[in-house]
Amino acid sequence: MQTVQRPPLPLRLLRVRPGGLVPIIALLAVLLILVAVRQPDFFAPPSLMSFLGRSAPIILLAAGQYFVIVSGEFDLSVGALVTAQVVVAARLIDSEPAHTWPVVLLLLGFGALVGLVNGLITTRLRVPSFITTLGMLLILLGAVYLWSDGAPKGGLSDEFRRFGRWAFEDVPVLGRVPYALIVLLAFAALAVLVARSDFGRTLIAVGDNPRTAELSGVRVWRHRTIAFVLSGVAAAVAAILIGGYSGVSFQAGAGLEFGAITAVVLGGVALGGGRGSVVGAMLGALSLELLFALMNFYGVSGALRSTVQGAIILLAVAVSAPRSSSR
Amino acid sequence: MRALAFRPTRWAVPGVFVALALTLAIGWLVVLIDGGQLFNQSTTVSLLHVAAGLGLVAVGQTLVILGGSLDLSVAYVVSLSTLVAAETMNGSDGALVPAIGLALTVSAAVGLFNGLLVTRLRINAFIATLGVGLLLKGYLDNGYDGPAGATSPALVQTLGYQRIGPVPLSFLLLVAVAGVVWLALARTRFGHHLVAVGGDPEVARLSGVRNDRVLVTAHVLCSLCAGLAGIYLASRLGSGAPRVGSEGLYDLESIAAVVIGGTALAGGRGGVLGTVGGVLLLASIDAIFNQLEVDAFFKQVIRGVVIIAAVAVYARRALRKGAV
Q1: Strand, coil or helix: what is B292?
Q2: Among A208, A209, A212, CA closest to A19
Q3: Interface check B308 vs A, CB under 8 A
Q4: B123 with A134: Cβ contact below 8 A
Q5: B303·A317 Cβ contact <8 A
Q6: Where are the bilayer-spanning segments (chain A) (predicted)?
Q7: With A117 labelled, which of A75, B16, B94, B301 sits at a CA distance of 20 to 30 A?
Q8: Residues in chain B closer than 8 A to A125 (CB atoms)
Q9: C-alpha separations of B177 from B49, B188, B206 in Å
Q10: Looking at the DSSP assignment, which residues form a beta bridge with residue B164?
Q11: Closest Cα in chain B, distance from residue A233 (Å)
């Protein structure tokens, strides 16, 4: 990889290259300007902090999805996994504070396990990940409905909900800092570290050309499986935040998989793998959330949201596509 | 070249039909032990009705997947088509032909748009058709709260409910459409070009195939099939239904049926006969579980397992053949 004489960071960011950060930063800037024009209050610390806290789950999911997509696969099961986790957490905690921490650990383990199964079926049984994770989506939703007889049971303890709801009060300058934001920053830092490690770089090589990677001694299946596990764990953390913020429902994770994939693609990561950065993926998720906030400010009716979302996605991808196809 | 390109089709088709026969045999036995009857008139009819709706969408989906593309917008095209048809008919038989024409035209236009996004703007098919799906979803959510329009009684009586013995007219429509598509794939230039483009776009281009044109045609045909499924559903429901497509999971289920039928998701390999087998397999599993009065959610779990297992079997077989 081009480690020799890299230009300093600001210059690197400016250079337009496939999978680079320029398009997503430009999109983010445009959205920020539009928000600033319409609703200057948005940038006051309290509302900004709560916006970032609310966006934490989808940003985490995008980071997890990044690892899977950059390695050349898909994970369609994350939305169903979030729903399953929230419902399972409510039933197991059953409003009992003492159950909180064991259940949190269990959820993380469950997320990792689902990722592991996705990864092993995809790599060892050679089922395309689109099908593996689609099957997993059906299995998870069916199983969780079956297990709870069609209506969520139990309840989340306040200790569990604080991750998604509570905040550090009276922080200087910022005011109120949601726990979710701290969780997000911690996991985002972790994601960047993983992406920049040997593992992260090898993963890009795997996505770019699995055959070449295999021939240079990389165990492709192991790397891809770990990517799925990362996505599963990210879904578990997102589920803990979503459960805390909005409570238990079968709709908790509905559509999140497509949201995360969209965010990753907006962030300049190529579907099919081999190109992109985790920072871009997370910024993509932030842009998507900002877009929703903007639609709120402009009073776009809830029903029309998906139309605007679809149009923005098509535009953003169309604008950056010619560059990426001519690599 | 041609024989080579089509050999996997001949290999893959029996697979899914063997699975179908086994499923039906085991299902018949289990239902019998349970004290029921799997092959009575009403279950057979409802099985074939389920197969007709999903089958029409899946046959179209086969075309785009063979070409190495994908269509995630079909579910919304189905809903849109039910509405266009039912609102134009507005309960009278007079507007039958124009309504069907309009519904198909609108569907074809969506397909054309999909195709142009994928070929001209070079947007990944997954994102392009997801985006178009969202555009349509917003339009439907914004404009409709519930059923709208009314299907012409003549259509309801024929396509919706008429049957010959246990075979509904709609299933015959599926058979006819699948037959035409099979002929197109096996005997026409378009069919051969499509498989070539799906197999290796670069090689196809260098051999003089106009990839873009072929793919756009496939997308238009796929949306037309979804539109036809919409007209069928409108005739079944008696009105336009804004959420029938997405609630029926027609997008993901049609892709699953295609893949269970032995068509490779990467394109270039497979065929429409397998898809019909895949649709029948999914519909049979549905019918068997309905007879056993198994929980609907358990059915979904089984569906997920079947989809993964079927594809794993194909992958294993492809691997073995590759090794020989």
Answers
A1: coil
A2: A208
A3: yes
A4: no
A5: no
A6: 21-39, 51-69, 76-93, 99-120, 127-147, 177-195, 226-246, 278-297
A7: B16
A8: 312, 315-316
A9: 15, 15, 32
A10: B167
A11: 22
CA-nearest residue of chain B to A309? Answer: B134
Q: Which residue has the tokens 């957490």?
A: A89
Q: How far is CA A142 from CA A135, B54, B301, in A?
A: 11, 20, 5
Strands B163-164 and A175-178 turn out to be unpaired
**Would the CB atoms of B315 and A127 count as touching at under 8 Å?**
yes
Note the pLDDT tens digit of each residue in A11-28.
555 444 555 788 889 889
Check if the beta carbon of residue B264 is closer than 8 Å to that of residue B15. Answer: no
In sequence order, which residues have a C-beta less than 8 Å from that of residue B204 and are 6 or more positions away?
A: B193, B196, B197, B211
Average pLDDT over residues B229-237: 95
Look at strands A167-171 and A175-178 and give their pairing: antiparallel
Type of residue found at B225: C
DSSP A104-121: HHHHHHHHHHHHHHHHHH
- Sorted by where each begins, the domain ranges of chain A are 55-287
Write the DSSP assignment of B54-100 as a string of letters: HHHHHHHHHHHHHTT---S-HHHHHHHHHHHHHHHHTT-STTHHHHH
What is the longest distance spanned by two Cα atoms in chain B?
62
Helix (H/G/I), strand (E/B), else coil: A153: coil
CATH code for the domain defined by B2-323: 1.10.3470
pLDDT tens digits for A70-122?
999 989 999 999 999 999 999 998 888 888 899 999 999 999 999 999 999 99
Q: How confident is the model at residue A325 (pLDDT cuts 50, 70, 90)?
A: very low
**Per-residue pLDDT at B5 exceeds 50:** no
Please enumerate residues of A whose Cβ is less than 8 A from a Cβ of B. 121, 125-128, 130-132, 134-143, 145-146, 150, 258, 261-262, 265, 271-272, 301-311, 313-314, 317-318, 321-322, 325
How many Cβ pairs closer than 8 A exist between chain A and B?
139
Beta bridge partners of B240: B148
The pTM of the whole model exceeds 0.80: yes
ipTM over 0.95: no
Model confidence pLDDT, tens digit, residues B35-60: 878 788 888 898 999 999 999 999 99
- The helix/strand/coil state of A271 is coil
Integer Cα distance of B138 and A307 in angstroms: 4
Instruction: Kindly give, in sequence order, each residue whose CB lies less than 8 Å from that of residue B163, ignoring residues fewer than 6 positions away.
Output: B45, B169
The C-alpha of B314 sits at a distance from chain A's nearest C-alpha, in angstroms, of: 9
Looking only at Cα atoms, what is the longest distance across chain A? 61
Residue A121: both structure tokens together? 């079926």
Higher pLDDT, B91 or B74: B74
Strand partners, A175: A171
How far is the alpha carbon of A169 from chain B, nearest alpha carbon, in Å?
39
Q: What is the pLDDT of residues A295-321, one digit of tens each?
A: 888 888 777 888 888 888 888 888 765
**Chain B residues in contact with A75 (beta carbon < 8 A):** none
B14 vs B99 pLDDT, higher one:
B99
